[in-house]
Amino acid sequence: MSWRQTKDAPFYVGYLNAVPKPLVTFLAVFAICFTGGLGLAALALSSTQNDPGSGGFQWGNRFENVGILELRPYPVLRVAANGETAARTYMLAGQGKRGAFNQAEKHGSTPVTLRGVPVNRGDLTMIQVGRVETAEDAGTPFTPSEPVPLGRWKLTGEICDGKCYAGAMRPGRGLAHKACADLCLTGGIPPVFVSSGPVENRNFFLMADKEGNLLGDEIKPLLALYVELEGDVERLDDLMVFKVDLAKARILK
Amino acid sequence: MSVQYTPVIWNRNKIFYDAVLLIAVALYLYVYIRVAPGFEDVTKPIDGATLRMRAFGSCAFLMLTVILCIGPLARLDRRFLPLLYNRRHFGVMTAGIAAVHANYVLGWYYNFSPTDKYVALLSSNTNYGQILGFPFETLGIAALVILFVLAATSHDFWLSFLGAPIWKALHMFIYAAYAFVVLHVALGALQGAGDPIFTSVVAASVVLVSALHFTTGRMEARRDRGEETAKASLQEQGWLVAGDLDEIDDDCAKVVTLSDDERVAIFKYDGKLSAITNACAHQNGPLGEGKVLWGCITCPWHGYQYNLSDGRAPAPFTEKISTYRLQLIGSTILLDPNALPPGTHVDPVEIGEAA
User: Fold this and answer.
1) What crossing angle do the helices spanning B136-152 and B87-108 adopt, rounded to 10°?
2) Residue A154: left (phi > 0), alpha (psi -120 to 50), or beta?
3) Could you give the angle at which helices B136-152 and B174-187 cross, rounded to 10 degrees?
4) ipTM here
5) In angstroms, rounded to a whole number, what is the distance separating the alpha carbons of residues A232 and A219?
6) CA separation for the pair A70, A89 (Å, rounded)
């Protein structure tokens, strides 16, 4: 039996201010449930978001160091060891979604004083370059070490832009962030491979092509996905470099 | 009803409707952005821009879900009909919330780059050939464009200007917008690290919207079959048996489905019977589910009114609908299935005389 209008049923006409009483009660209950439901949904959805991790700008810990700028193949700062710390290699990025190629190319292999802001997540550090000046007092002449080959590896993980993943954005990985990562890499930010398994206890790798050159657009379809990559791993002071053979890359999911 | 076009003809019911809507949306955003982060188990807070884009995006998604549920809910239970009355304001607000979400995305993920953010939006990811990594932003843009067009043409001016069939067809694109939004979320946010709550909410939305439409679709089909009484019954020189007098309450109607799926509403009022098409000239509202108020048929959706004898809206309104001829033999109502031109006068059948 289909529904049929009856004489006694409450009838609502929107432009009449008088709403039948049974409908007033029903609509009041609905309004409370609708409003309360949205509030509860907001609480449930927002409070259970995934942890974006510990990455972030270290605004209170400004970076200033003397070192040599190199292209490996992305800009890095090589800092000599001193009595207490071993030699270090820092990845560099410019302001916003820009790389630091101009500064690296301008200063060649002369010692510089580089000021900036570290963006740090665990043992991944990216320096957002502020000012670069030729070092007036470079101290003892310093020749950066050559990379140490660590063999051929097949690793699974995600290709990210090194700056956002380090903490410039929280979260700074995943498919929702893919377009941003794409723009960052186009702007010259170094790509970083976040491996699900460590190599010498390190999970973050600066990426290069299999010849050690810059990666091109061929990396873009692989960005922000769970992929398997194969290539040679090298250690540059404390920085790991993954020279990937993209022809052998596989999307896992 | 109005003979002139003004942006909004406010009345108390619309104000209540919009007030509840605004309070609910404001509560959602406040809880999402300001309250719930205090309960998060995170090492460091999520970026404010990301939090806001998620808040506005999820809010628009939930609003769209509710909008799509109102129609079938009102078919299943007429007490939901008041929600239909001002649904266009719900839609316009949803388009606005979705636009804020898009603005946060543009100002965060596509900003700080040498590339113009609008160029970047369309050019940064062009992997249309792959499912994982598909540029889901494009799906969001498509949904937003549809929501904007529907919001912009939601006013009765556009209904009158485009005509009901085109306007109705245009506004059916809300389903395309919903499909785009679901894909936008499924290929974007849901591909991140597992978030069972959000995944469940999206799945529940899809199941709810689909199930309600499926159920009401079956109900309507069953109703059409059940009310084809005329088609399979006694016929007398082209007249169809439409039912019995006792089936109709005073000031109410019985809806009869004709063989070509057209529905006719037969009203009983003041000791008389009149028949008109069941479809309101405004938005195809089911007139047969309305009532006779002040001597006029009153549509249950937006209160549009028509005279019973000629199907014309009372002056100064100009809408008119088809009428039908009736006969009454004993208590059996006979209907001439041939629709008369909209606005044609038909003398009502006097119940007392015939019976």
Assistant:
1) 140
2) beta
3) 150
4) 0.91
5) 17
6) 10
Q: How far apart are CA B295 and CA B33, in angstroms?
A: 52
Judge whether A149 and A199 are in contact, CB under 8 Å. no
Cα end-to-end distance, chain A, whole Å: 51
Give the end-to-end CA distance of chain B in Å, rounded to a whole number: 37
Token pair 């439901």 is found at: A37
Give per-residue pLDDT as tens, A119-176.
999 989 999 999 999 988 766 778 899 999 999 999 999 999 999 999 999 999 988 8
What amino acid occupies position B247? E
- B8: closest chain A residue by CA: A15
What is the residue extent of each domain of chain B? 12-224, 232-354
Going from N- to C-terminal start, the domains of chain A cover 56-134, 148-251
Which of B79, B125, B188 is nearest residue A182 as measured by Cβ atoms?
A: B125
Contact A4 B247 (CB under 8 A): yes
Pairing of the two strands A56-57 and A63-71 = unpaired
- Smallest CA–CA distance, residue B341 to chain A, in Å, is 26
B259-314 pLDDT tens trace: 666 899 999 999 999 999 999 998 889 999 999 999 999 999 999 999 999 999 99
Cis peptide before A73 (omega within 30 of 0): yes
- Of the candidates A31, A174, A180, the beta carbon closest to that of B191 is on A174
Contacts of A10 in chain B (CB under 8 A): 79
Residue B30 burial (10 A CB sphere; 0-12, 13-18, 19+)? middle
Class of domain A56-134: mainly beta
Q: What is chain A's length?
A: 253
- Cross-chain residue pair B253–A48, CB shorter than 8 Å: no
Task: Reply yes or no on domain B232-354 having CATH 3.20.20.70.
Answer: no
Select from B190, B167, B351, B354 the least CA-distant residue to B271.
B351
Q: Is B44's CB within 8 Å of A12's CB? A: no
Nearest to A74 by CA among A212, A221, A238: A212
| Chain A interface mutation, best of B50, B108, B111, B126, highest count of A Cβ atoms under 10 Å | B50
Do the Cβ atoms of A180 and B226 come within 8 Å? no
For residue A15, give the nearest of B11, B115, B192 by CB distance.
Answer: B11
Distance CA B266, CA B278 (A): 9
